[in-house]
Structures are given as structure tokens and as C-alpha cells.
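Section 5.1 Outputs to date
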Amino acid sequence: MFLYTLIEIVSLLINVIVIAVIIQFVLSLLLAFNVVNRHNGAVDAVWTAINAILDPVLRPIRKIMPNTGAIDFSPMVLIILLQILSIVLRNVAISAI
């Protein structure tokens, strides 16, 4: 039962990271198209916080990925890897019961 609870907690953290990646993506689009700018204190605080959370996770993926120019595929790779981890953990929890 403890293993199942631990797996649920890890799954929750995976979902939080995926949501943070989506927020970073949307915010980067809003910044790129000048819908919002970093001169706004709230936007700058959210941008700084999201990047502080995700950069340590995305940096190793960016080192492995080939340079694709202006498009950064590392957030997509991170989401795919996290979903694979979630599937594996779910199957471990099912097999443990």
C-alpha cells in the first residue's frame, strides 16, 4: 500500500511539471508576440519562477538533442519522457497489488 501511495505522489509531481512546461510554452509565445512583456512585475516573476523550475530539468535534454535552430523540442521530449515514466509507475502499482 505504501508503494501505491508513493507512486501516486510521484504521478502528481509529474503532472505538476507537465503543467509548468505548458505554462512556460504559452508564456513564451505571449512574450514572443508582445502580448505581454517582462516589464510587468507579475509576468517577470512567473517567467523567472517557471524557468528556475524547468531549466535544471530541460538543460540535460537540450545537451543531448541536436540543434534545430529556433525551435526548441526539449519541452516536448520532457513531456513524452514524463508520460512514459507515469505509465511505467502505473504498471508497477498495478502489478504490486
